[in-house]
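Checklist before submission:
- one chain only
- standard amino acids only
- sequence pasted in full

Submission:
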Amino acid sequence: MFYVFVQANILPGTTWKCFMRAAVDVHFNPLVSLAHALASKGLLCIRITCKGLNLTDRVKAYHEVWESFLSRKEFTVTKIFLAGKSAGAWAASSMARQLTAGSEQAVQGLVCLSFRLHPVGQTDHCQRSEDLLGLPKELPVLFLSGTADNMCEKNILENVITGLKSPATVQWIEGAGHGLAVEGRFEESVLDEINSRVMSWILERS
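Returned file contents:
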């Protein structure tokens, strides 16, 4: 799942939603909850999912949706934050790198939830970190993952971050796995924690 959070001036009465090949991910509770929380703070949220294509095709599809959004006259975009979960964070970081190559001020922040850094049990094989390494020093990045995530080992992520030019913040959800669930905690409590952390980080930069 790939997200765009937008601070924009919107004409009264305007609504705009976009889904690309809706899949199960579009109903994933942590992402739905986060979208609602950010919308309550006045940020327009575009949720896009594109299932079954390779990363290059996904990012191309997301670019087309984004350009379509920008062409609409009822929106005046002032700030852009890209976000994604798991492989969606690959797409978000790839798109952020491409957009900032044209203008370093094109994106104001990148949020990576449960970044899929390596396959389960293959901690010697980092995936898709090249886009992160190519991000400019002006683009802040938030990584939010669980301490029990078997596709994002804590020490490996922290090692990758030392090589970034971008200022990176890492926040850990204690006991959460790749799906951001925590055994022994009510889901609502975990979602509130995730939402609070992400909202605070974005609003500090809005």
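Reviewer check: The radius of gyration is 16 Å.
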